Task: structure prediction
Amino acid sequence: MNIVSFSAIKGGVGKTTLAFNYGEWLANTGKKVLFIDLDHQCNLSQIYDIYDNEGTVGNIFKDLGKVKLHSVSENISLIAGDMRLDDIERDIENKTNKNMLLYLWLSDNYERLNLEQFDYIILDTHPDFSTATKNALIISNSIISPLTPSEHGYNAKFNLEERIKDLKDEAIDYSTRESYFTANLYYVANMVKHNTKSSRELLEAIKDEDNILAIIPEKEIFNRTTLDKKAVSEFESDQKIYTKHKKFFDEISESFNKITTII
Ligand SMILES: Nc1ncnc2c1ncn2[C@@H]1O[C@H](COP(=O)(O)OP(=O)(O)OP(=O)(O)O)[C@@H](O)[C@H]1O
Ligand SMILES: [Mg+2]
Result:
């Protein structure tokens, strides 16, 4: 099983859009995917029209309680986000094991919920470095962080890296002195435009870095995926749309393929 978090301290950079489309793409290639929506904005859950108040991720943090796995399509299940997760995070602020609750939940429920059936767990997170995000990063094998061409787009990278360094030190198993945090951090340049100064600057800044998984252009059809609740892999089966956007769809497929071989 591969556990992947989409995280960034900056908002609106494409975490949810990329998590959704990548998970759907994996499912389309026959992989079984479990989405966990750790953002109290619940955007990923809303894409699947799930507005539950019961059995949400909130229970993982409240009392290691029961959660519901929604089977949303043949290969995809989802644990719904909780609109009160920010309040719950405040309530557990003084718990010493607050960053390990998802880790504990995963090991306690692995067999009961038959989690080994999933090839991938994909976590979408809130744009911050809160307790829920730390929990996600601690259980992850990989972190994918989108970088966008904007004034502070590239600098967001250093902010995340600093905080990850602190988390790695903080999440120590005192008996072995090893950190529970073992994830590899990768970036995706997202919403890259043709011929704009900020896009050129971002591409220039990342050109020699080896942990850039993909460069995704800004495209209205990609924006539409979350609005229409239809992933790129679904649009592909519509011949008219496919023909019109073939170049972009091929590019996305190639990027997702590359991501899969690296992470
Ligand atoms: N490559 C792209 N081209 C065009 N639009 C995009 C692209 N990537 C994301 N978007 C759009 O940008 C907006 C923000 O994306 P998204 O909601 O995925 O960001 P986010 O990082 O999850 O935001 P938040 O921090 O609020 O959770 C959405 O409207 C989405 O459809
Ligand atoms: Mg989001």
